[in-house]
Amino acid sequence: xxxxxxxxxxxxxxxxxxxxxxxxxxxxxxxxxxxxxxxxxxxxxxxxxxxxxxxxxxxxxxxxxxxxxxxxxxxxxxxxxxxxxxxxxxxxxxxxxxxxxxxxxxxxxxxxxxxxxxxxxxxxxxxxxxxxxxxxxxxxxxxxxxxxxxxxxxxxxxxxxxxxxxxxxxxxxxxxxxxxxxxxxxxxxxxxxxxxxxxxxxxxxxxxxxxxxxxxxxxxxxxxxxxxxxxxxxxxxxxxxxxxxxxxxxxxxxxxxxxxxxxxxxxxxxxxxxxxxxxxxxxxxxxxxxxxxxxxxxxxxxxxxxxxxxxxxxxxxxxxxxxxxxxxxxxxxxxxxxxxxx
Length: 342
Ligand code: NAD
Ligand code: WQD
Prior knowledge:
The chain is of the alpha/beta class.
């Protein structure tokens, strides 16, 4: 039956991944406690794919519960998304982040041992590289000291998975280091649901364009970049979801055990002003924005060398920045229409 356990499967990246898993013939089993997502997402996955994913509502950090709840399935792989991800909040409440992000990963590794599931895809982040000395960033680039407790949880979870692998050569694990996921499903049925004031650029842009925020502040235009604003590697969330399908297929088909770390980005860097201009052009809207102070802790520029993932997972991005920003705006308009609370 090819069941795949998807922790955090109701969240932003998890929900898009469940759609693509179903389209590829897998049966996702979502484990989510809805601490940062909404239940209607499960129905939306069904609306897009025609198939309702199995839902196990609960905390994946609660290992006895998880083991019991999954007993009746033979699960071929686990994609572990569940984590808290707000960088700012993590500096104020570090223990909450260590407890949830590390605790849930330990619980999943223990669950793998008892359930016999051998294949793990873990959600890591380009944040492990900090400001890289050389661009684009390859997987060999050194990890830099984490800028936040959130970033540290990603580094620690990578180390935990690697140490665990050394002790149990039966497992196969890939940590995917995402760059900046943006956009939404083209159906506008699922997308990002930021709680409160968004920290990330694209949700702030769409909320400003929708009149929810008065104006966007560009955090600094005096960086050492062509237009002075910071550069990131923005990847369409559907492309990122497809990378997870490729990763789980790769692990299932592989006979030898392994642990590996893989960048998931487009390989192209875009500045904040390029994102704003592209958003305005493709959507025909004008954005109210101003140049402000630098945001403390911001990385000047970072973008992926995507050649390893292109080769090992035979995966490449299919969608452009333009499509991502069109889909992000379509999603924002859909949220407004349904008067979804933000
Ligand atoms: P999200 O908050 O939208 O999704 C996370 C989901 O996990 C939510 O549905 C939440 O309710 C659930 N969850 C959290 N803790 C849980 C627990 N203990 N048990 C069960 N469910 C739990 O976040 P996202 O943007 O989809 O991110 C998914 C993963 O990717 C996270 O690990 C995040 O750190 C990582 N990541 C995200 C980004 C990004 O920019 N969005 C970038 C790099 C890495
Ligand atoms: C992008 C660019 C801002 C908002 C964060 C996390 C990181 C990772 C990805 C999970 C930057 C600029 C933003 C605004 C702006 N997540 N900006 N005005 O900083 O790359 O990283 O998401 O692992 O850990 O820290 O993403 O979307 O916050 O910012 O000018 O109102 O947009 O300065 O240059 P970032 P972001």
